[in-house]
Write a structure and sequence with these properties.
CATH superfamily of the largest domain: ATPase, nucleotide binding domain
Radius of gyration: 21 Å
Mean pLDDT: 81
Number of domains: 2
Shape: globular
Number of helices: 7
Low-confidence stretches: 84-88
Helix content: 25-40%
């Protein structure tokens, strides 16, 4: 290893399909990145799951490779793992639907169990562990726009319930949304409405989760607010003006 080697933080960013190793320099800019796709295999219960043996071998191989790159010196190592993201497109391939306050109010006022998003529950987890999973029939809606509005209502309400399970939302003033939903202004404005008193931001960089993991390792996340805004390219989202949604209970 060269004496002039750049100190870096190594992050293994384990997504559902793609697995990445990313090296950040001291200013948290990406200086190295490799990616692989590891397909799921059937687990002991017959469900698709991670191919752990292949994944572990890949992690060891990539870490060994990173440690042997002369121009880098790995000083910290951490891991981030995946959540779920969704992209919704209409027939024209457009993913953005503008919120319609009147339609939101109508859907909330006429809410029925049949129109609510059906949950996929597993191992008695989540905010509604006793609910039975099922198919969500979009044919009961009069239009794509109506179905999409109902979907946003349900997803934000479920997200709020999940956040309350952590027992930490009272201590949090700022929430940064990354990934696919970081590009969904409809979802973000509804989430801001659901969480009054908190600032909801979106981050537009592709590796925000890995960056956050690197910052935690370095203990830098509490004293670099200005730099974080620059690195993440965050945008503040205003709450949607809709009193019906503010009072709405998903259960």
């Amino acid at each position: 290893m060269s004496k002039s080697a750049i100190p870096v933080t190594a992050i293994f960013d384990i997504g559902k399909t793609n697995k990445k190793i990313i090296l950040f320099d001291k200013d948290y800019y990406i200086v190295y990145r490799e990616q692989v796709t590891i397909y799921h295999i059937e687990d002991d219960e017959g469900f698709p799951g991670e191919d752990l043996e292949t994944l572990i071998d890949w992690v060891y191989s990539e870490l060994s490779r990173a440690l042997n790159i002369d121009k880098f010196r790995v000083t910290d190592l951490n891991f981030s793992t995946y959540g779920a993201t969704m992209v919704h497109l209409n027939q024209e391939g457009q993913g953005e639907v503008e919120p319609d306050p009147a339609l939101l109010t109508h859907l909330i006022a006429n809410s029925t169990p049949e129109k609510k998003l059906k949950l996929e529950t597993a191992h008695s987890s989540g905010p509604y562990p006793t609910d039975q999973p099922g198919e969500w029939d979009i044919n009961q809606f009069s239009s794509y726009k109506e179905a999409y509005h109902q979907l946003m209502i349900d997803l934000v309400c479920i997200q709020h319930e999940c956040m309350k399970l952590t027992d930490s939302t009272d201590d949090i003033d700022n929430i940064i949304v990354t990934g696919g939903f970081g590009n969904n202004s409809f979802f973000l404005s509804l989430l801001a409405k659901r969480l009054p008193g908190k600032k909801i931001y979106s981050a537009s960089i592709p590796h925000a989760t890995a960056l956050g993991t690197a910052l935690i390792m370095a203990g830098q996340h509490e004293n670099m607010e200005g730099n974080l805004k620059k690195l993440l390219n965050i945008v503040l989202h205003k709450p949607l003006k809709n009193k019906a949604f503010e009072r709405h209970s998903w259960e």
